[in-house]
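Worked example 2:
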Amino acid sequence: MPQLAEQLDYIRFMPPRTRANRKVWWASMLLVRPGLGDLLGTKQLLGVLLAVYVLVKIDPTLGSRAAEPVVQFLGVYEQLMPDWLAVILALLLIVIAQVKINVTNGYSGSLAWLNAYTRVTRRYPGRTVFVLFNLSIALGLMLMDVFGLMAWVLSLYANFVMAWLVTISADIAINKYMLRLSPMRPEFRRGMLHNWNPVGLVSVTAASVLSLAAFFGLFGAVVQPFAVLISIGTAALLTPLTAAATRGRYYLRRRSDGVDLPMYDEDGNPSAERLRCHVTGYTFERPDMLASAVRGPLGETQYVSSLALTLMLTPNTMCCP
């Protein structure tokens, strides 16, 4: 379930929403996000049902192996069809699921690695390097049989990822729509943002530390099973409290990007008009650009991309006030 956040990356491949396709667009978006959450939540409940079924009705000696998908698939399929067909179907489902998971992780992980690497080193090697890097890590873990510890690793991972997901959710639902402290339009451009926003930093850090302390038994055996709930509750509480304490001052460094062209088209989609970055020489779409403080040879306005600002040591000196 924590991997659901990675599915968001696939939405970027959807076509722009227009008056002609708005019904199909909304249906697709709802199926990908809230619909997918409902579907996977239902699948988890069915997995519990199947685990109990194979443990009680088929093989009471399975123990914890009853939670393994391949055991569940085989246990059910063998009641409905010949053994050879049951094995083929179970194998097919496992292979499809693993390919899908690894493709998603390779894609999403490369984004995270690239963003972190670019921010720290001020270099941009491109996505391909980190796709290969991510896949190499996955192969190494598989060869070392680290997946034998997967249940414990995922339980540990859940403490971090739920702190992150709940912080984002609380920021959108509470800080943005209820308290009106968070900007209504998401902003990612380097020149528009502060280096750090205490809202996310405080919430994720505190929720992760407290839930990990509970996870490792520092609060006692009674509290230990509720580690992830501690992460969820702490993040949900601290996100709006920190935003209110800072009055939302650290969401945006500046309110205007200095570009006179509209950010969105008539259908409300980000403008596809391209502008040239005078630092990198590449063209980028309008939502990625800011007006540069450096004027052109004839005094004209020049533009600088978010990528260029990320690579600079002092990015905000390049932006118009």
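The chain has nine helices and four strands. The two ends are 43 Å apart (CA to CA).
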